[in-house]
Design goal:
Elements: E1 2-9, H1 15-25, E2 30-36, E3 39-45, E4 48-53, E5 56-60, E6 62-67, H2 72-83, H3 86-104, E7 113-122, E8 126-136, H4 143-150, H5 161-171, E9 184-187, E10 190-194, E11 199-203, E12 208-216, H6 223-233, H7 235-247
Antiparallel strand pairs: 1-12, 2-3, 3-11, 4-5, 4-10, 5-8, 6-8, 7-8, 9-10, 11-12
């Protein structure tokens, strides 16, 4: 189960300046700025949910995180430790299997493949274990059918998906809202969608800011380590908040 926590603040920084600082402090390939009335989503996501290019579907789930170190040699060791982690690989492969099942509902039989399994990528503040799952889409499959088969993304639920979604509803004491959803583009029947993580939600009317972090809870999980991983995931966002708050003094 991917269990998430919510943190909130009774203050609201300038969303435009904060997003610029977030991009400077924690650049990410699926960053998003979204505004709806008085509400803002500021996202520095490293994770792709699902993309479609011609007839090819591509999913890239993340499971496995380590905080980076300023010392190059120590950082290399941390990266190698993540790559060899039995627990993180097991979590990642579990979600890969879930996504293979999801994609098989809309892809041609035998076309779902895993060209990249448990590869470690490095970002500004963390190393992440990412896999790539692809499939050849069946002819005349609609966008709505693809979303119905795959959303919500397995990396933000866990497995088996339906049961853990019920557990999430029961155990989490907040509504995720935009968090763990998806933002992206859809053009000429192709699309690219992110996973809304490493994000801030701002309500300028209520003068509230919210951010969320989560981690995969398995039988082998050690609670203290899972909580520390949540803090590691929030480190880039928290640094951007500190920098922007300092600039306003």
């Amino acid at each position: 189960m991917n269990y998430c926590l919510q943190f909130e603040c009774d203050n609201c920084l300038n969303p435009y300046a904060l997003f610029a600082e977030l991009n400077r402090t924690a650049p990410a390939p699926f960053a998003t700025f979204f505004k709806y009335n008085d509400k803002f989503l500021l996202c520095s996501s490293p994770e792709r949910f699902l993309a479609k290019h011609a007839d090819c579907l591509i999913a890239q789930p993340i499971k496995g995180t380590r905080k980076r170190h300023l010392d190059t040699q120590v950082d290399i060791g941390i990266k190698e430790s993540l790559a060899g982690s039995t627990k993180d690989r097991a979590e990642n492969i579990m979600i890969v299997d879930l996504l293979r099942n999801d994609l098989s509902r809309v892809c041609l039989p035998g076309s779902v493949n895993v060209p990249e399994l448990c590869k470690v990528y490095s970002f500004s503040h963390v190393h992440q274990m990412i896999s790539t799952v692809t499939g050849e889409l069946r002819a005349k499959t609609k966008f709505a059918d693809i979303l119905k088969a795959s959303f919500p993304m397995g990396s933000m639920t866990g497995a088996p998906k339906i049961q853990v979604m019920k557990d999430i509803e029961h155990f989490e004491n907040f509504s995720r809202g935009w968090y763990s959803g998806s933002v992206g583009y859809w053009e000429n029947d192709d699309f690219d969608l992110n996973v809304v993580i490493r994000s801030l939600q701002l309500d300028t009317a209520a003068q509230k800011m919210y951010y969320h972090v989560g981690g995969a809870i398995t039988f082998d999980s050690i609670p203290e380590e899972e909580y520390n991983e949540c803090l590691q995931k929030a480190s880039g966002l928290m640094q951007a908040l500190k920098n922007q708050e300092a600039s306003n003094l």
